[in-house]
Amino acid sequence: MSLGLELTHWSYFAMLLFTVTGSWWLEIAFKIRVLRRPRLALTAILPVSFFFLIWDAFAIYQEHWTFDQDQILGIFGPFNIPLEEYLFFIFIPLAAILTLEGVKVVLRKIVK
Hints:
The chain is an all-alpha fold and 112 residues long. The protein has one domain. The protein is built from 3 helices and no strands. The protein has helices at 11-29, 38-61, 83-111. Helix 1 (11-29) runs parallel beside helix 3 (83-111) and helix 2 packs across helix 3. The N and C termini lie far apart (52 Å).
């Protein structure tokens, strides 16, 4: 990249933002109110994320997979899991919930 800027470290984070942006507009367009009920959303997301993070930590420890150091920010949380991976287990399910709720609104309008 020109000007000596190294943006590849933002690759994983940018993918997460792209995914959330792709479904975030549904909250406003269809007034689905998922984001206005954060406790309910987190109740659906966090228990499942916990188990996937354990699995992730085990896979990293066993060297079943790694993260490309050139595509992550280099910030690590517990169990040597990159920040972006923690965010993945929140943002991706949130995007799925927003999408599902948006589809429900559209289907209700079609069925009427």
